[in-house]
Design goal:
- There is one protein chain.
- This protein is an alpha+beta fold and 247 residues long.
- The protein is 36% helix and 21% strand.
- Strands 8-5-4-7-2-1-9 form a seven-stranded mixed beta sheet. A two-stranded antiparallel sheet has the order 3-6.
- The mean pLDDT is 92.
Length: 247
């Protein structure tokens, strides 16, 4: 398998976590996709031909998938703020599942399987152009997701106090747009933040967990595996814990 990521820069980084590329060789592979606090636009090529474009909801449980041989993916891993501004819809209806989109969505059918860098450049330019046309970006939501993804604040009440937006209103927003309360989402993001350390062999609880037992319980709830099983990552089962190339 081959995997790489390209990180966005500037204001686009408020909406996009990364552009990522993945390909299989002559052998099909099995993976378990772990909840990470993002949603993805995924472009799939089978035997070098565009076969599918889909949007994922937020994953709240691990998902086992099989990827066929000779398959290539281009994808955009979006932060939740992107939903309202680029897609202008909700994704609560596809929580823990996916929705197929037309192959022509965002002119994706104009790219070939070997044009990931071009895809990244063109889509980045288009998204930045769209951002420049926004009348305004809601400052409360901008700060909300900044706090969430950067782990600056740990609870809903702390975030509510800092952005002057009531906990009740925040949860109404999360439930209507994403299908889960913010408290649950914070737990998913907290677990995702440990994956790299677990991959590196750090199996001790982080400051965000009460103790070792709480750490193991939370990790197992969202991944279906113990930290030790995640670290072993037999046969690259957990793609998010496998070695990555970043640009």
């Amino acid at each position: 398998m081959s995997y790489k990521e390209i990180k966005p820069t500037g204001i686009l980084s408020n909406f996009v976590q990364s552009f990522w590329y993945y390909e299989t060789s002559e052998t099909a592979v099995n993976h378990t996709i772990l909840p990470d606090g993002y949603f993805d636009l995924i472009v799939e090529f089978e035997n070098q031909a565009l076969s599918k474009v889909k949007l994922t909801g937020i994953w709240t449980t691990p998902k086992n998938i099989q990827i066929h041989k000779n398959t290539t993916f281009f994808a955009i891993r979006f932060k939740l703020l992107a939903l309202e501004y680029f897609f202008k819809t909700e994704i609560k209806s596809i929580l823990d599942t996916t929705q197929n989109l037309p192959l022509s969505f965002w002119n994706i059918d104009s790219f070939t399987f070997d044009e990931f860098e071009k895809f990244t450049t063109v889509v980045s330019e288009n998204l930045n152009s769209e951002i420049s046309r926004f009348n305004a970006i809601d400052s409360r939501k901008l700060k909300l997701f900044e706090f969430v993804y950067q782990h600056q604040l740990k609870t809903v009440s702390e975030i509510s106090t800092q952005i002057f937006w009531s906990s009740r209103q925040i949860n109404r927003y999360f439930n209507s747009q994403f299908g889960i309360p913010l408290k649950e989402f914070l737990k998913i993001v907290r677990c995702n933040a440990t994956y790299q350390e677990i991959s590196n062999g750090n199996l001790k609880p982080q400051n965000d967990f009460f103790d070792q037992a709480h750490f193991i319980k939370e990790i197992k709830k969202y991944t279906g595996a113990t930290p030790k099983e995640l670290h072993k990552n037999k046969n690259d089962r957990f793609l998010q814990l496998s070695t990555r190339e970043e640009k």
